[in-house]
Amino acid sequence: MQSYPNHWEADVVLTDGGTAHLRPITPDDADLLREFHGRLSPETIYYRFFAPYPRLSDRDVRRFTTVDYEDRVALVATISDALVAVVRYDKVAPEEAEVAFVVEDAHQGRGLASVLLEHIGAAARERGIRRFIADVLPENRRMINVFREAGYTAQQTFDEGVIRLTLDIQPTDDSTEVMRAREQRAESRSIARLLFPESVAVIGASRTAHTIGQTALRNLLDSEFQGPVYPVHPEAKAVVGVRAYPSVLDIPDQVDLAVVAVRAEAVADVVEQCAEKGVHGLIVVSSGFGETGPEGRARQDELVRTARAAGMRVVGPNCLGVANTDPSVSLNATLSPDLPRSGPIGFFSQSGALGRAILQRVADRGMGLSTFVSAGNRADVSGNDLMQYWQEDPSTEVVLQYLESLGNPRKFTRLARRLAKLKPVVAVRSGGSAQTTPTGHAAGGLALPDYAVTSLFQQAGVVRVDDITQMFDAAQVFAYQPLPKGPRVGVIGNSDSLELLVKDAAVRQGLKPHDPVNLGPQATADDFDRALEAALADDEVHSVVVVFVPALHPISDDVARVLRARSLGSDKPIVTTYLARQGVPEELRHVGERGETLRGSVPSYPAPEDAVRALAYATRYTQWRDRKPGRHPELPDIDGARARATITRALKNAPGEEVWFGGERRYDEDTAVSAEDTRELLSCYGITAYPDIPVSSADEAVVAAGRLGYPVVVKADSPDLRVRAGGTFVRADLRTPDDVRSAYLSLADRFGAEADLVVQRMVAPGVPTVVRAGDNRSFGSVVSFGLADVTAELLDDRAFRLAPLTDMDAADLIHAVRAAPLLFGLPAGATSLAEQPNVEALEELLIRVSRLVEAFPEIGYIDLDPVLVNATGAHVLGARMWLREAPEVRPDAGPRRLRGVTF
């Protein structure tokens, strides 16, 4: 039997937050198809077949379940091993196929038809299909709407009582936006089902004090959860005074959420029981899974497969749990008794070990949380899911994330950009530039310097901080103060030395401080009030730092009242070093009916530098949010079909060399591409790389120069030599055969057999730069830029941005390197502005390179070195490329799906 592509199989989230499994149909599905058809109502059958069709004949079943996965393709959706929906296409013309689907009545309205259409459309495009034809009865309004609302270009005709819809299934901006919006709603609701359960079972509840099972149960009860709590214990009739049940199946009522605290070996049986019970979600606090090695990883994968197949999402395993402070729920399904007050902050943490300390710190600082999720091994629910939920959660105004790895980096950056336009996103990314990844998480770590990680987060709108302390420092401003409208900072205080510290710190952070207003050590609360009133009324002041230290007479409470009052009515943020206190002290808080800290409360920091740094985070975030995002310009001379053919040919011909740069082995799984194929592939995206001719003797060098035309250069073809040899690896402006012969002999004598020598047509002098791009395992497609200068290389003066670049991204990328001013002045020897480097051409080159690596995941690495920027353009004088076999499914590409079980 012909096999189907593995990537056609996927787990998906439905509009109500449940899950289903999609896969191609096989002949083994015959009995499932009969049972499915038998459950359909007469109306549904009539809409599908245009006639009564009470049962399927054996011939029908064979025809429907036997497909070739080319011209005839069918996908099925299953939940708990039951078939609940089918979609199929049959090719009727070279680029056209007829499509039809049917959804079981009990599961209609859950978004199955829409997600099936997305996946069958993706499969059809892989097989060269460009259009779908669908015949629908006029009264089948639900099905007509599925096609019309898909976002594809559609035409409609009516003939003999049937509506014929013709859909161009090529992705469009509209269809992509529709898909993303449906994804957001579905994933948000799947998280809401975990955070707003009406009932909770604790499976593994123990009668022994201080065990995980009893701790989870007591925390639920102590939080005054608003629904029933059901302990599950195989023998006990009650646990901590609450009636217990032998298994979840013995609980007489519906169970929405199950906290699983049994041995790892017993979790599989528990999940099966929860699936049979119809539980909506699982929080698995048990350890012994992916963090322990291959055996635990297999157990973890099986846990997720079973749960998703039954429509359940999983938090964990090896996690601290989830909490929701909404008074209508009051859910503390964690192992921590220290739950902060209700507040505007949503917190996601991968680390279970840090979770309890994080919750304690939030409480100690007087801050409040809306929701908290510690995902542990992050086998299913991840920070991406929480971002989908927090985007539309009215109770969450600030998002905090403690990240150890990014499971789906492309989706992370896409969601972070969208969420950050609405709400601040602050992240601690542990591990820096380390190559390792925490056990139990996604394979692969950051292969970028730490400053690159920060810049890529900033490009996505994420405020990246160095540690948990800085995270809370920034969160205090975001949660309780307005955003600053600019970088100008007013400084008020009663300590001259501390005010100078504020001013110096502000300058270091890129802010623009005014001269401090020193009120003197004897300043009263009225003095602070008048100074604050003046600063807040000044249009040249965008935020205020107040320094207050104890004076000889106790006026601290009076100053606190002034700060609270002025902050409450101000649209400018105020931060303080009030008595060197940290957090939002009681004296500076505005308190709600439930004791929660309200907007207008003033955050305090133990040191002036901490206050300024937090304010700088808020200022830079505001500047990012207000900045125009730029556009993706239309680029001529792009031939994607020719590029695809070139890559296919190059992968077959590549020698599979290892690549070494600076003594570090890179891309040993990738394959080097020939110079000809590299130039051909670049030309498909409108990038011209100057050819060079390898030579092994002075005579060959002279012949090559004659072929290329004078003037020429002779150079050593190794980027690594530039760092070691400075400018001595190249001989330029060679205009005669004698010049070429002399240059060759000089370089051959200097480097011997260490470097291959090449001859290349000379380009007018300019500024040499380096453009590199490729796939990073933590962020996806990344473009880097720097100057091709020995000093720049040694100082690692490079900048990084995520692909694809907008015109604004390209301009920012160039300006981000410290040596960028060399591109914006006159080069040595230039006499007029007409000889200034053409930076616009360099920006276009960066955009084209970013489009190329984003379009083709087979490209592991591109090295354009050097790119000479002169008055006539950006000239690629050196180009190398390495390809690899692309993954079947590129993260965040194609129809929506949950992350794979093994990732």
UniProtKB/TrEMBL annotation:
SUPFAM superfamilies: Acyl-CoA N-acyltransferases (Nat), Glutathione synthetase ATP-binding domain-like, NAD(P)-binding Rossmann-fold domains, Succinyl-CoA synthetase domains. One of its GO terms (molecular function) is acyltransferase activity. Residues 679-716 form the ATP-grasp domain. Gene3D superfamilies: 3.40.630.30, ATP-grasp fold, A domain, ATP-grasp fold, B domain, NAD(P)-binding Rossmann-like Domain, Succinyl-CoA synthetase domains. Keywords: Acyltransferase, ATP-binding, Nucleotide-binding, Transferase. Its EC number is 2.3.1.-. Residues 20-170 form the N-acetyltransferase domain. This is GNAT family N-acetyltransferase. It comes from Nocardiopsis changdeensis.
